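Input for the complex:
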Amino acid sequence: MPAPAAPTFHYTAEDITRVFEQACTETVKVNDEVAALTLDECTFESVIARKGRLDNWCGIISIPEFFRHVSTDKALRDAATEGSLRYEASAPLSKSESSLLSKRCTTDINSLSPENARLLEKMHLAYVRNGLLLDDEKQEEYKRINKRLAVLKTEFSKISNEESSYRLFTREELEGLPSDFIDHLPKQTDEKDGQEKHKLTMKYPDLLPVLKFAKNEHVRKEMWFANETKCPENVALLEEALSLRRQAAKILGYASHSDYVLEVRMAKNAKTVEDFLSDLRSKVTPIGTKELERLKALKCAEKEEQGQEFDGTFMAWDKMYYHQRLLESEYSVDENKIKEYFSLPQVTAGMLKIYEQVLGIRFVEVESADTWHPDVKYLEVWDAAESKDFLGHMYLDLHPRDGKFSHAAQFTLADGFENEDGSRSYPVAAMVANFTKPTNEKPSLLTHRELETYFHELGHCMHNLCSKTKWARFHGTSVEWDFVEAPSKMLENWCWSRAELQGLSGHYARKGEKIPDEMVDKLIKSKFVMAGLDNLTQNAYATFDIVVHTRDEDNFETTPLWNKMRDEITLIPGLHNTWRPASFGHLMAGYDSSYYGYMWAKVFSSDMFHSKFEKDPMSVEAGREYRKYILERGGSVDAEVLLRDFLGREPSNEAYFTELLAGTGNNAKL
Ligand SMILES: [Zn+2]
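Predicted:
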């Protein structure tokens, strides 16, 4: 078959506005028509499939929406932002529709194909979860709570964004910090002693260097304390939100807010997450305890060197500092040297080859293709394993420019789906990153961290390009939220595998020179430095998140709870006159009851990698199965089933611990 036409990117601001308007009009029209059906007229076809097709069709807004992140033209970015806000507000779910849908749910679901049945179930569930099946009084109450929650969220983030506290230090006090860093700090006169000092805010680019490098313990403590006591007003906002979420969950019939959130996740309920976290905690605590001993020994030695007495304490503001000392003294990984072996053109070619071989696909670069910027590359993606069919369109937009999205991410520009006549609409995926631009002397060189990001985001592209579902609603990365990172995380392992790393490498100036063994070994060894303690810190946040969202009690105080949990779980105490929850933004930015997801994805990505790819990361057989069982099915079945089918057994956290134990130098099985 010839390649289907690639999308075009010639849009004016008016075009963008028009596309969003079309999508709004069509959405309102379909919703009105569905709502006007009588119960007799209402079938899977007339309601569910109709709305499923509307979802498919509304994919037309994805490219205009994408302009918000990548266009160099502010007018286009503004038109896209405005259009997308209007679109979101255009289609409130209606109560009459909800009763139709619930009626449909009483019909025989077994007469539908599995993916159609899933579409019906998911749509019905969305209505239930939006409170549309409640009686009028309860629905009003539910709406009132959600309105107030939206206000609290906005206020919380406004206070966080406007936070501007700072501390002043002399140059001597900042000993240990790089001198060019100190030189660039703004200066201000300290009213207390009239001395001109360096000003440090609580923003990460100021805070982290102090916690990592400042030799003076009092300075680190002062900054840590200032950071843990910022935004005091947020405590009350958070606590009110917790109460309201609890009430809302009860109205809908859930035992807790966590149960409500997790119902549509792979984890399914709060109990599973609690067990997951406590199991992790009990297994990681012995590793963390040993690591802490190492850090304490470093502190003791440093105190001795300075002729000071060591009182045996190790506090929250010591952790990053001694972690950094350990990295420097024992692992000496030189990022700038490693970079020289990973030039962007070399890495891109190598990575695509790995994906081609493992997944059984083929990339064809088309140089003349239309894109949104001259830097952008376009590739056709074809099946090379069985059908030889076209799979989708892929774009790589890898260098920074003004007004462009400043992180790395994959953007879905179109989902794949089946058209009414049985033909397919093909997916379009774009990887956006900000790797340094090449110069006349040097190609763009990637740090190991960037290499990992590249693999990761390309992994999301593969998920979308290899997926083949009937409905756009279930395409590719449209899986349960706590599973979406696992497939990409798994693919990061290729960046920590000696043979693959060497295969990808090649010195940019000294042709044919591969990265030396010794450098690779040090790098791989450094992957797990303090992994136990870091894991426990994550665990403390995740556990706190679940505890505050499951506690069946109104108006409890969050700060004593956090302080206690931090001391116990992270093994490293802090001060109790602080209120960290006030700046735990995840809880108020849509990640409530979701923090565990970071660890969840890690555990299952380890399970997949170690059971299928560890012996041979280039295994064609495992790669094909991965594509067939995980990538191809997208969200059309539960993630738990995807995993079980791929692994051939129940998922487990064993591989994760084995890796952690080996990586942290603990050989005994726990
Ligand atoms: Zn990701």
